[in-house]
Design brief:
This protein folds into three domains: 104 residues, 3-Layer(aba) Sandwich (Rossmann fold); 64 residues; 147 residues, Heat Shock Protein 90 (2-Layer Sandwich). 49% of the residues lie in helices and 18% in strands. It contains ten helices and twelve strands. Strands 6, 7, 8, 9, 10, 11 and 12 form a seven-stranded mixed sheet that branches. Helix 7 packs across helix 9 and helix 9 packs antiparallel against helix 10. The structure holds adenosine-5'-diphosphate (ADP) and magnesium ion. Adenosine-5'-diphosphate binds next to helix 9 and helix 10.
């Protein structure tokens, strides 16, 4: 569709009316205004014309023999190839109920006869403008999806390819420390130790980034997953941290949900490891997992007795790389919660947090429940 360019039509409009005089009148008016006009004397012809080449807009009479305007509209809306074309109903019926029906069957506007030329033109231009903007939005959205996918792919490839050289760097630093420590002065050893530490941190970042980039990429096969098995695996994986911190992890019988097992393990593991990590020094972490059924989903909670989060930070922590503390105080990469959010959202749920500073935090998230469970 083009607008107001010299020699180019302002839009392609199909007028449908069983009265030739009405058709002529509207057609002359719109042609005069620079629109390209097509005419159809019946509903059937209108549908054939739209199917052959969808116009930018349809002006559709309601009262017609054989097939009335509502039926024509319904038929066009039911077909994916013609459903996007905006339809303005034109009728002499000035009845509130008919107007409601016009919108109910998918019409975008309604003009009553006898009409004022300027009003009809204003309504047509308004609809074409909306249509144009909508089209722009669809295009921009497509472009966003494409560039997002490209970025994810980029993040994946980069993190994947960085792993190998980094491992080599760390490997040789370890070798240097092991074999030549006695020949190096204190400062050189300190430098090497720092390289080693930074290398480890970079490795952790890359691993976390890879996990983040993989969510929604692979493992999209959702099945029923027994959360008791998930929690068993998570507590095995976190055995070291739990033992070191003397943490107490408690949960009752957990439900079976629809999801991806590997990602559910990552989800619970991220939340539980945070719950164990973010405690005041000397406090024994108590982490409780709860599950509550709500309609066709389960709402899980991971409750802790940790340092809590200030209200103004509750939103930002789900963004990638957002951390509220220094590495020295609480180490981490700031990727865990962003991964949790991505996991929950790709499985059709949502995640949020409630917290009292210095008292504790609860992360809630929802997952689809298995039917009849
Ligand atoms: N259970 C919790 N209690 C207090 N703060 C938390 C908790 N979980 C997460 N946070 C805050 O949210 C930030 C982001 O968490 P996350 O993405 O897992 O990153 P990381 O654990 O690597 O720091 C953390 O750095 C921390 O400030
Ligand atoms: Mg974390």
């Amino acid at each position: 569709m083009t607008f107001n360019q010299a020699g180019v039509s302002k839009g392609d409009i199909l007028i449908v009316d069983d009265t030739p005089d009405n058709l002529r009148l509207l057609s002359a008016m719109l042609t005069n205004q620079g629109f390209a006009v097509r005419k159809a004397l019946s509903g059937h012809r209108a549908i054939a014309s739209v199917q052959a080449d969808p116009p930018d807009l349809i002006l559709l009479d309601i009262k017609m023999p054989e097939m009335n305007g509502y039926e024509v509209c319904q038929s066009l809306k039911a077909n994916p190839e013609t459903c996007e074309v905006p339809i303005i109903f034109v009728s002499a019926l000035d009845d509130a109920l008919d107007k409601v029906r016009a919108f109910a069957v998918g019409g975008v506007d309604y003009v009553t006869k006898p009409f004022q030329e300027r009003e009809v033109l204003a309504r047509i231009e308004h609809q074409l403008r909306i249509q144009h903007l909508q089209q722009q939005l669809i295009e921009q959205n497509k472009e966003l999806v494409r560039s997002n996918r490209e970025l994810e792919q980029f993040a994946y490839v980069v993190s994947h390819d960085l792993q190998q050289p980094l491992q080599t760097v760390i490997g040789f630093v370890k070798l240097l420390l092991m074999k030549y420590q006695d020949n190096l002065d204190e400062l050189a050893c300190d430098y090497l130790n720092r390289i080693h530490k930074s290398g480890d941190r970079m490795q952790q970042l890359i691993q976390d980034l890879l996990i983040y980039a993989r969510v929604g990429k692979k493992n999209q096969d959702f099945q029923s997953v027994d959360c008791n098995l998930v929690l068993k695996q998570v507590s095995d994986n976190l055995q070291m941290a739990i033992a070191t911190q003397k943490a107490c992890l408690s949960y009752g019988l957990l439900p079976t949900v629809i999801g991806n097992k590997i990602q559910l393990i990552q989800l619970f593991q991220n939340l539980i490891s945070n719950a164990i990590k973010f405690v005041h020094p000397g406090v024994t972490p108590h982490v409780k997992i709860s599950a509550l059924q709500q309609h066709n989903e389960w709402r899980f909670g991971v409750h802790d007795n940790g340092i809590g989060i200030e209200p103004q930070n509750l939103e930002q922590i789900f963004e990638i790389f957002q951390r509220l503390h220094t590495q020295e105080k609480y180490p981490g990469t700031g990727i865990g919660l962003a991964t949790c959010k991505k996991i929950v959202e790709t499985q059709g749920g949502c995640i949020w947090v409630e917290s009292q500073p210095d008292e504790g935090t609860t992360f809630y998230f929802t997952l689809k429940s298995v039917r009849n469970v």
